[in-house]
Amino acid sequence: MIAKLRQLIILSTIVLSYCSYADNTDPVRVGVLTFTHPDKVKQRWQPTIDKLEQDLNKSFKLMALTPSQLDRSVAEGKLDFLITNALTGVSYKKDFGSSSILTLIPLGNKDPNYSVGSALITRSSLKVTSFNDLKQLNAVSSDKQAFGGFQIFAGEMAHNGLNPFSDFKQLKFVGFPQKKLLTLVVNGEADIAILPTCVLENAISTGEIAPDSLHVVLPKQPSGFNCQRSSKLYPYYSFSKLGKTDHRLATNVIRSLLSIHAEDSAAIQGRYDSWSATVNDSEVFKLLKQLQRWPFVTNWTSIFKSALPWACFAAIFLLLGYIHHLRVKRLVVLRTQDLQAETQQHTQTQKALLEQTKQFYKAQRVLLTGEMASGIAHELTQPLAGIRYLTQGCIYRLSDEQVDLKEAMTKAIQQVDRAQSTIKRFRHFCQQPSVMSHCSLNQILDETLSLMAAEFGRMQIAPELNAEQVSLNADPSLLQQVFVNIIRNALDAMEGVSSPQLIISLTKNEQYAQIDFKDKGSGLTESALERLFFPFETSKENGLGLGMIICKRIIEEHHGEIRAHNNPHKETDNSASGLTITIILPTKEASNE
């Protein structure tokens, strides 16, 4: 009874207020934004328009318009009301005085503030865990003006520092119907589809798509929304009035639309629950800012059309064109000068880098020679000591009558002592002390990577460096030799690998800094790993087996530690997935203690 009385009051109010403008015989024109065939749009919204005609006893005309047609019709004043997405409705506010008066409540969702978003859909076998993964993918969408699909996700990409038109490997707009995009992804003609929320769920529920074939990536938390999404949620369709539309007519339209319930034919045919008062559109303004659209950029075309006659506009345009020509000409000259300066600077940098490389390899050869000499000296010391002990034992066993033989053996012992003394001096000469200074470990790593740039280019690999800021007391030259030797070993281990990868991580705590060199190479056997830091142990055909023992001694001289381990095996392969070399060095604070 109360519901019937409420409808009677609404209808009575509409009839009474209508008398003031009933003499106007022109139809009320309602524009609907469409991306599909106009007949489908009219079939959906015509019952709602019929409801307005019945309640207001006035002729209404439904006009299904594409984005360009809608822009033109609004600019020419051919529309009174708009049924559009929230973004389009807001964008007409500045120039045409549009204002949202009602918001549509979709089926199954009672909160019109959070009703539409974008879903990034790809094959179940394709993993996308971050926005940077999108750069390698071929994307498809229905239309670049589609709010629920492309525009919302374009805002998400802009928020993460990406541009959909330049950061996708390829981006195509293939039109409607939207479910066609799902087929393109399933067939492998595209890697990813940008669609409105719930399109995938509807296709699965109708059996058009297998449940396990596709999934939504970069998902957001559901927060009560029924479908998976990859973006924020925004308000649903809005019913807007243009600035010239009579406010009394708008008031009666509002009353009529608010009287529609979910069980009415208008709601059933229109696939919605009901209409509500307009909702908060602040998030839509944020999206406009991310997309660099009004009011955050200037609409110069509109300014010229409204402010200047066509003749003045043409004259100013020509003048600006000439000024732009002069400016470009001047910029070309300045840019040419800058390029020449950059080329000269680049040449000088290359010369300095080449000289640094020569000095580095020279120092490395000297260190390698010293280590070889030290190793040889160490190996000779023991046999010489054995010779001395054996000779001395023979002297003890000689009789007093064997004077000549005893004298000869005594001279042999003297020669052994002389040889041992020479070897001792030789080892002392080869053991050059480190020159410790306060230095930045990050700078040493950066210089090392610059030094190895040519090797990285040959291997077509871009090393990944994740480093905290670390300072300590060390010999920069010796540490650089350690880093170069480890990186070169990693590159040698990745020869022939289909996807080489080198990750260098620098972390620290209160007392120690840790550097990890992780490669995606062939790894080492358990026996080779155990003897990695032994001298003259090598798996290379022409190697000497001194590189890692040199690294170990340099790190130990810095009171640090170096160790190695194979990376965990892949689940589908029993082979090693590379080696990790870990270096631990005391920081400045720890050294001072």
What characteristics describe this protein?
593 residues; alpha/beta; five-stranded mixed beta sheet; 18 strands
Sum this structure up briefly.
With 593 residues, this protein is an alpha/beta fold.
Reconstruct the topology from this structure.
Layout (H helix, E strand, L loop, with lengths): L1 H17 L9 E6 L4 H19 L3 E6 L1 H9 L5 E4 L1 H6 L1 H4 L2 E8 L11 E6 L14 E4 L5 H13 L4 H4 L2 E4 L5 H8 L5 E5 L2 H7 L8 E4 L20 E4 L5 H12 L6 H6 L1 E6 L4 H9 L9 H8 L2 H88 L5 H28 L6 E4 H11 L1 H7 L4 E4 L3 E4 L1 H18 L8 E7 L3 E8 L6 H5 L16 H11 L3 E6 L12 E8 L1 H5 L1
Parallel strand pairs: 1-2, 1-3, 6-7, 6-8, 13-15
Antiparallel strand pairs: 3-10, 4-10, 4-11, 5-8, 5-9, 12-14, 15-16, 16-18, 17-18
Helix pairs in contact: 1-10, 2-10, 14-15, 16-18, 18-20
What would the average pLDDT be, to the nearest integer? 81
Low-confidence stretches: 13-23
**First-to-last CA distance:** 88 Å
Strand order of the largest sheet: 2-1-3-10-4-11
Estimate the global geometry from the Cα principal axes: elongated
Major pleated sheet: 6 strands, mixed
**Strand segment tally:** 18
Q: Please give the oligomerization state of what you see.
A: single chain
- What Rg do the Cα atoms give? 40 Å
Helix content percent band: 40-55%
Q: In percent, how much strand structure appears in the residues?
A: 15-25%
How would you describe what is shown here?
- This protein has 593 residues and is of the alpha/beta class.
- 50% of the residues lie in helices and 17% in strands.
- The chain has helices at 2-18, 38-56, 67-75, 86-91, 93-96, 147-159, 164-167, 179-186, 199-205, 247-258, 265-270, 282-290, 300-307, 310-397, 403-430, 441-451, 453-459, 476-493, 526-530, 547-557, 588-592, and strands at 28-33, 60-65, 81-84, 99-106, 118-123, 138-141, 170-173, 192-196, 214-217, 238-241, 272-277, 437-440, 464-467, 471-474, 502-508, 512-519, 561-566, 579-586.
- The chain has a six-stranded mixed β-sheet with strand order 2-1-3-10-4-11. The chain has a five-stranded mixed β-sheet with strand order 7-6-8-5-9. Strands 13-15-16-18-17 form a five-stranded mixed β-sheet.
- Strand 1, helix 2 and strand 2 form a beta-alpha-beta unit.
- The longest helix is centred in the middle third of the chain and has 88 residues, at 310-397.
- The protein is elongated.
- 29% of the residues are buried.
- Residues 13-23 have low confidence and may be disordered.
